[in-house]
Design a protein that fits this description.
This protein has about 675 residues and is of the alpha/beta class. Among the domains are: about 80 residues; about 150 residues, Rossmann fold (3-Layer(aba) Sandwich), CATH 3.40.50; about 180 residues, Rossmann fold (3-Layer(aba) Sandwich). The protein is built from 30 helices and twelve strands. The protein has a seven-stranded parallel β-sheet with strand order 3-2-1-4-5-6-7, sandwiched between helices. Helix 18 links the parallel strand 1 and strand 2.
């Protein structure tokens, strides 16, 4: 109904009320056409006149709920249930109880479904509570294929898995049904961005902002970056856009009260452009401090006794970070430190339990920034090491606060944080280049080796089958076992040269969840070499053990210039497999070359894109050279294991910094 038509209808109902002031239906009808505050007042009058009318009482309860009068809404619904048990009334009461976090809600919805199995609201609400969510949402859509809330929620359920393309389709349907629904548009923008279509995502963000100009959404639109950029030129375009919009946003005094709830993202994709990220990281940090001033909290609580050393991450579980740092945490000298493991959010798997068992104390932070800051300050840490900053929003926002006298970040996400609250970035002599200090906001601390105590796990390679793992049965398998967002467009030309130089070459990548990313990578390769897509394969998701087996059975393993492998390269070396690499300017592109230096095998690292293609082709086509390289890697890989000297150097560094601070007058 148009606003003009609605105005005429409202006027007609006002005349009706003037003629018959005791007409409850007239008040009810007018309420349905009025703004919430006016509607609630009219519904109250209708309820007073109608007495026990279930239609009026239910409408009044819904109006009270929308007006924030939860107690009044619940008492009205309970009074209705005392007169008659109806499925719709139970569902309405369950919605309010769910909003208030009451456990009784689930029981209300189930009882409603027992009375009315086709009650859409109950299926939808149980889905929202995670009670068989996909099954509930599918049932709700079977009842009403045009239910916008269900379309959006099912899409968000699928968004981070292999059904991303379908999720985008559901959100498009939801937006077509409710084009003025800003939240639907925002969710569509998020899904489009995850799928790799940053341009379409930006348009959807702007459409959402035109309807509902939320400051958090403005920040999201300003810091948008494509996960799989189409070209070097596109990277330059998006970085320029990023810098311009971040600068503009800083000048407009935006406000975000709860960054973790409303700003659940980081600048993750910035690090994969192989450029100097320090100016942009610092600009974003300043922007967040202005938008959410409470991020910059200082809360230092003293204690006496042995120094308390904290390790914090959201990934102390079966994740790359958990595996890289589990032995470091276990190996800290307890005569020197009391080790406090800080889990940013809950984590419960075998790796998480093992890491926790090797700490003196475990602190699990709730996913609420204010409570988390208080919990972290209450741990009374002398030094706090973030193993990674920039991959997870929770730890990024926490790192804005000063909650320990000494705060450091390790190489888990090897790029500067841009935060002046992080004192040291832990790097290593044979990894970072001379003059790398300028790359970091933090003071650069060079250990003798990366903070790492790696020990490969025993793996049975007997009977491993290329076809089962997804490797081509015929031809030579060139495997790039890195995440697809690490594939810089400049690397496309090198990959095309490998295909040109070896007519039996088949490129292999790891698919992951997002098939749309695979299509974008193939499109880029096709621009370099028509027909490249026919010689490109994507491995399905593999178990950790099969992932290593695939590297062992590939003819050549390719590293990604600009952001090289860490754990992946260590695993390849453990099975005697060389990794073709080429160091770049920044630490994140120099990890594999640093491992080679430790092994004394610099000759296996390329010095230019042309040299990379030439050496990769020799590894692939010269069986004798490949066998010799594998032999040298197998012989020297043990130099990378058990590097406890870096752990001891880290301990000495922390103790020296704490002593220096203690000697400095406050």
């Amino acid at each position: 109904m148009s606003e003009a038509r609605a105005g005429l209808v409202r006027q007609a109902w006002r005349h009706a009320i003037a003629r018959t002031p005791e007409s409850a239906p007239a008040y009810l009808s007018l309420a349905k056409l009025s703004l919430p505050a006016v509607s609630f007042r009219l519904l109250g009058r209708a309820h007073a006149l109608a007495g026990t009318s279930s239609e009026v009482a239910r409408a009044y309860a819904q109006g009270a709920f929308l007006a924030g009068e939860n107690t009044r809404a619940m008492s009205t619904l309970l009074a209705m249930l005392a007169l008659e048990i109806r499925a719709e009334t139970l569902a309405d009461l369950g919605v309010i109880e769910a909003r208030l976090g009451l456990e009784a809600a689930a029981g209300r919805f189930r009882r409603a479904l027992a009375l009315s199995p086709a009650l859409l609201a109950a299926h939808f609400s149980l889905g929202n509570r995670g009670d068989g969510a996909e099954r509930r949402y599918r049932r709700a859509l079977a009842l009403d294929p045009r239910h916008g809330g269900t379309l959006v929620n099912l899409a968000n359920l699928w968004r981070d898995g292999p059904r991303l393309d379908e999720a985008v389709g559901l959100l498009k349907r939801a937006v077509a049904l409710l084009p003025s629904d800003a939240i639907g548009l925002y969710n569509l923008a998020n899904a489009r961005h995850i799928s790799g279509d940053a341009g379409a995502a930006a348009r959807s963000y702007r459409a959402a902002l035109a309807i509902e100009p939320r400051d958090a959404w403005r920040l999201r639109e300003a810091t948008l970056l494509p996960p799989i950029p189409g070209s070097i030129e596109e990277i330059a375009e998006w970085r320029g856009r990023f810098a311009t919009r971040v600068g503009h946003s800083s000048a407009t005094h935006l406000r975000v009260d709860d960054p973790l709830k409303d700003g659940h993202w980081t600048n993750f994709h910035l690090a994969y452009h192989d450029q100097d990220d320090r100016p942009l990281q610092e600009a974003v940090a300043r922007l967040w401090r202005r938008a959410a001033p409470t991020l910059a909290t200082t809360d230092l609580r003293c204690h006496d006794g042995r120094p308390r050393l904290g390790f914090i991450s959201a990934y102390f579980r079966d994740h790359t970070i958990g595996h890289l740092f589990k032995r470091v945490i276990a190996g800290i000298d307890r005569e020197k430190f009391r080790v406090v493991l800080v889990q940013a959010g809950a984590a419960d798997d075998a790796v998480a339990r093992m890491i926790a068992a090797n700490a003196d104390e475990v602190v699990v932070l709730p996913e609420d920034l204010a409570k988390a800051r208080d919990g972290l300050a209450a741990a009374r840490l002398d030094a706090l090491l973030y193993t990674d900053i920039g991959m997870d929003p929770f730890t990024y926002y926490l790192a804005h606060a000063r909650l320990a006298p000494l705060q450091m970040v390790a190489w888990g996400h090897p790029v500067t944080t841009g935060l002046d609250t992080i004192d040291l970035f832990l790097s290593a002599d044979v990894f970072d280049r001379d003059g790398a200090e300028a790359d970091y906001t933090e003071e650069l601390a060079r250990l003798p080796f990366l903070l790492l105590d790696w020990q490969p796990e025993a793996l049975d390679l007997a009977g491993a089958d290329r076809a089962r793992l997804g490797l081509a049965a015929e031809g030579r398998a060139y495997l790039c076992a890195q995440s697809l967002f690490k594939l810089h467009p400049a690397f496309d030309r090198v990959l095309a040269e490998i295909l040109r130089g070896d007519r039996e070459a088949v490129l292999h990548f790891v698919e992951g969840h997002r098939r749309s990313w695979c299509r974008r990578i193939v499109a880029r390769l096709e621009r370099q070499l028509p027909g490249a897509g026919e010689r490109t394969r994507f491995l399905p998701r593999l178990s950790g053990a099969d992932f290593i087996r695939a590297q062992a059975l590939a003819d050549v393993v390719l590293d990604t210039p600009g952001f090289s492998g860490g754990k992946t390269s260590l695993e390849a070396f453990a099975v005697g497999q060389p990794v073709m690499t080429m160091p770049s300017r920044y630490l994140r592109g120099r990890l594999t070359r640093g491992f080679y230096r430790r092994m004394g095998l610099d000759e296996l690292a390329a010095t230019s894109p042309e040299d990379y293609a030439r050496k990769a082709l020799r590894l692939g086509m010269d069986a004798g050279f490949r066998a010799e390289a594998k032999g040298r890697v197998a012989e020297r890989a043990s130099r990378l294991w058990g590097t406890v000297e870096s752990v001891r150097a880290f301990e000495d560094l922390v103790l020296a910094r704490l002593s220096r601070r203690a000697a400095t007058p406050s």
